Amino acid sequence: MLAAREHWGSRFGFIMATAGSAIGLGNIWRFPYIAGENGGSAFILIYLAVVLSFGISLVMAEMVLGRATQRNPVGAFRALGGPRWAFAGGLGVLTGFVILSFYVVVAGWTLAYIVFMAGNELATTESAVLGAHFGNFTSQTFAPLLAAAVFMAMTAWIVAGGVGKGIERASKVLMPLLFVLLLALVARSVTMPGADAGLAFLLTPDFSRVDMNTVISATAQAFFSLSIGMGVMITYGSYLQRDVNIPRSTLIIVLLDVGVAVLAALMVLPAVFAVGLDPSAGPGLTFITLPAVFASLPFGQVFGVLFFSLLAIAALTSAVSILEPMIAWAVDEHGIRRGVATLVASLVCLLLAIPASLSFGPLSDATLAGRTFFDWMDFLANNVMLPLGGLLVASFIGWRWSGPARAHLSNDGTLCLPWLSAWIWLLRIGAPVAIAALVWQAVGGS
Ligand code: TRP
To answer: Is residue 145 within 6 Å of ligand 1 at its C-beta?
Structure first.
């Protein structure tokens, strides 16, 4: 019953779509404030080490599973490991629902902030006023949900278009636009008077602020940023033709992802220092601190609109990739039409987004063990489900399927990959140990 599977139209399209998945709110919203809280460049160096070892290994592992089977995560695990392994893919599909439901809430805020910036509603350098504005907006019942719904509709519209005419075509336009916007904003930020304090903060590593928690945050951030652990890379890999050089493509994608994260830090932190604000402002850095920066700049309103557009674009190509595995599963495994599957999955995510959004307002007191509904989804996805998904992929390839995986990654021995054994051992031992430490710390420590 397997209809001919759609494939990426070109290597460029594949790389833009996959980099589009990786580059998202994780890079532009989350990375700068996490780096700001963890001592700047010391954190960045650790992050690079994690990404270039475990990160790259796991991205390649997922892509191999996808391309070898030409299936969605559930079908891929079932085809190679038998029915007992299908749950590993199922976990990924489930994780997608959880992540997308809170991702669209924050993505909706970025859409709203484009409107606020354009309407000149944030023209003040007073952090207290901007903080109140952020609080007032996010605690409303309907406005943030409406924004999330608009964002979900944009995501669904792209996914419903299919792999080539939807995802690939959108990524080929949106990603280059993102790079241009980002470079323009970095240029603006580092040339602000006083930006050198921020550059110094970013370029002189302060290892005194590094401890085990820093390493664990870096690992969790790497997973989220590289879209590892829920089968996105399996699904995107399943649309690959046989002859693509997976290691080389992975390296390009990972370097783009890291590059954008570092550039985002270079865009945000020098500007924050230049106007004398606090770099460790946490999640509010983007929505509270940056508008104060824009308000103090000539043409700041324009830069503000560009910045939040950049954020929305990054979020859009990522949200598309979180939605796609569920759709691929419904289409491949159950023969459901793509349009129908997209509609149903999007509505389910929106339904789950309601309590996530209300966690900042009417439901802010509805907590369990100190966490709101939003916090729980975020915590479960990032600290439990994604690591577990990564662990299953690593163990499956490392212990059950290492021979064929080696052959497949090297395109049946036609690529010379001297590090193949190191890759397998990293998946067998390294990744499970690192992941177990992460989950242990998250569940016990916090
Ligand atoms: N990587 C994206 C970001 O940095 C988010 C994302 C997309 C993601 N697909 C994912 C996270 C799959 C985890 C799993 O914002």
So the answer is: no
Ligand 1 within 6 A of 24 CB?
yes
| Cβ of 321 below 6 Å from ligand 1 | yes
Q: Measured from the CB, is residue 386 less than 6 Å from ligand 1?
A: yes
Q: Is the pLDDT of residue 231 over 50?
A: yes
Using an 8 Å Cβ cutoff, are 262 and 32 in contact? no
pLDDT tier for residue 296 given thresholds of 50, 70 and 90? confident
The whole model's pTM is what? 0.94
Tens-digit pLDDT profile for residues 71-130: 999 999 999 999 999 999 999 999 999 999 999 999 999 999 999 999 999 999 888 899
Tell which atom from ligand 1 comes closest to the C-alpha of 21. 7
**Where residue 37 falls among pLDDT bands split at 50, 70, 90?**
confident
Q: What number of residues does the chain have?
A: 446
Atom of ligand 1 nearest to the CA of 318: 7
Query: Above 60 in pLDDT, residue 446?
Result: no
Is 217's C-beta closer than 6 angstroms to any atom of ligand 1? Answer: no
Instruction: Give the angle 194-196-199 at the CA atoms, nearest 5°.
Output: 135
Are the C-beta atoms of residues 257 and 99 closer than 8 Å to each other? no
pLDDT at 82: 96
Q: From atom 8 of ligand 1, which residue's Cα is the shortest distance away?
A: 227
Mutate to test the pocket of ligand 1, among 224, 379, 385 (most ligand atoms within 8 A of CB): 224
223 alpha carbon to ligand 1 midpoint, in Å?
8
Please tell me the number of Cα atoms within 13 Å of 359 on its side-chain side: 21
